[in-house]
Design brief:
Length: 346
C-alpha cells in the first residue's frame, strides 16, 4: 500500500533567505534599468532650463548690441567734438596774436595827441594817411575783440558738449561690459546644466534635439522657386538671408559668415543698400506696421517676444528665416512658432 507523506515544508529561516535574495534581485534590476534608460524628468527639466537660458542669453546679447551701437556713435561724436575744440583753440590763438599786434601798434602811435602830431609833422599828407591807418587799426582791434569773445563762447560750449559725450560714453561702456558678462554667464550656466547630465542623458538629449531639428527642417523645407518673389530691395534681402542657411549663430555677429538674430537682418538688408538699426528692439520701429501675419510680405521683419528680443525675416508661405541662438544655425521656421510682437515693412 502506497505511503502518503506530507511534502516537507521549507524552514522559516530558508524562507527568509529566499525572500531577501528576491528583494536584492529586484533592487539590482531596478538600478540597472535606471542606468540603462535616461531619466526623462531630469532630461526634460534640464532642456527647459537650457532653453530659458538661451532666451535670456539672446536678450543680453541684444542689450550688448544696443550698447555697442551707442558706444560707437558716441566715440565718433566725441572725435568730431575734439576736432572742433582743437580747431577753435587754433582760431583763438590766431585771434589773440592778431589782437596783440594791433594793440602794440596803437601803443606806439597813440602816445601824442593827434592834433599835435599833425602840427609837428613835416609831411602833413603823409601823417593823414598814417592817421587813417591808425583809425582802421582801432576798428580792427574792436572787431578782433568781439571775434575773440564769440570764439571763446563757442569753445567753452564745445568743451561742455565734449565732456558730456565722454561721460555718456563711459556709462555706455560700463553697460556694454555688463551685457557682455551677462551673455557669457548665461552660456556658462547652460553648459554647466548640460554637463550635469549623465553621458547617456546628454546623448539622448542631443539626439532628440537633432531629430527635432530634422523634423523642423523637413516640415519647413522651402524651395526658393516655390516662394512668392519679392521685388526690389526686399527681394534682395530675402535672397541674401536665405543664402546664409547653415551659418552658425554667434552673438554680436553681423556676418558675413556668422550672425545673431538682428545681425542677420542688418547684413541681409545692407546687401540691398538699406541700413537697419542694430538691435531687434530698434528694428521693431522701422518702416510701417503690418497689421497681421496674413498680410505679411517677403522681406518684412517679424519681431518676437514681449521684450522684442528676437527677429526673423518673412519669406512667404508662413515661414521666416532667422538665426535662433547659440549652438544653432541660420534656418527656416514657421513664422508663428514663437510669440509675435509686431511685424514691420522696411
Amino acid at each position: 500500500m502506497a505511503s502518503h507523506r506530507r511534502p516537507k515544508q521549507p524552514s522559516r529561516a530558508r524562507v527568509t533567505v529566499l525572500t531577501a535574495a528576491a528583494a536584492t534581485a529586484v533592487a539590482l534590476s531596478a538600478q540597472v534599468s535606471a542606468h540603462a534608460a535616461p531619466n526623462p524628468s531630469k532630461k526634460e527639466e534640464v532642456k527647459a532650463q537650457i532653453d530659458q537660458l538661451n532666451e535670456e542669453q539672446e536678450q543680453a546679447a541684444e542689450k550688448y548690441n544696443g550698447a555697442k551701437e551707442r558706444a560707437d556713435q558716441l566715440r565718433k561724436q566725441s572725435d568730431q567734438l575734439q576736432d572742433q575744440v582743437a580747431r577753435s583753440q587754433d582760431q583763438m590763438t590766431q585771434l589773440q596774436v592778431g589782437l596783440a599786434e594791433v594793440a602794440a601798434e596803437q601803443y606806439r602811435t597813440g602816445g601824442i595827441d593827434p592834433s599835435v602830431q599833425l602840427m609837428l609833422a613835416s609831411d602833413p599828407d603823409g601823417y593823414l594817411q598814417k592817421a587813417s591807418s591808425v583809425q582802421q587799426a582801432t576798428t580792427t582791434q574792436t572787431d578782433a575783440l568781439k571775434g575773440l569773445q564769440d570764439q571763446q563762447r563757442r569753445l567753452d560750449q564745445q568743451k561742455i558738449e565734449a565732456a558730456a559725450v565722454l561721460a555718456t560714453l563711459d556709462s555706455t561702456t560700463k553697460e556694454l561690459n555688463q551685457a557682455k558678462t551677462d551673455v557669457n554667464t548665461k552660456l556658462k550656466d547652460a553648459q554647466a546644466l548640460l554637463n550635469s547630465l549623465s553621458a547617456a542623458d546628454r546623448a539622448a538629449l542631443q539626439q532628440a534635439q537633432q531629430q527635432q531639428d530634422r523634423a523642423s527642417r523637413d516640415s519647413t523645407r522651402a524651395d526658393l522657386t516655390a516662394l512668392p518673389q519679392a521685388a526690389g530691395y526686399a527681394g534682395t534681402a530675402v535672397a541674401k538671408a536665405m543664402s546664409k542657411q547653415g551659418s552658425p549663430y554667434v552673438w554680436g555677429a553681423t556676418g558675413p559668415s556668422t550672425f545673431d538674430c538682428s545681425g542677420l537682418m542688418v547684413w541681409a538688408y545692407s546687401q540691398a543698400g538699406v541700413s537697419l538699426p542694430r538691435t531687434s528692439q530698434a528694428q521693431g520701429n522701422v518702416g510701417a506696421r503690418v497689421p497681421s501675419l496674413a498680410e505679411a510680405q517677403p522681406g518684412d521683419l517679424i519681431i518676437y517676444r514681449p521684450d522684442r528680443s528676437h527677429v526673423g525675416m518673412y519669406i512667404g508661405n508662413g515661414l521666416v528665416v532667422h538665426a535662433p541662438h547659440t549652438g544653432d544655425v541660420v534656418k527656416v521656421m514657421k513664422a508663428d512658432a514663437m510669440q509675435i510682437n509686431s511685424i514691420r515693412r522696411v
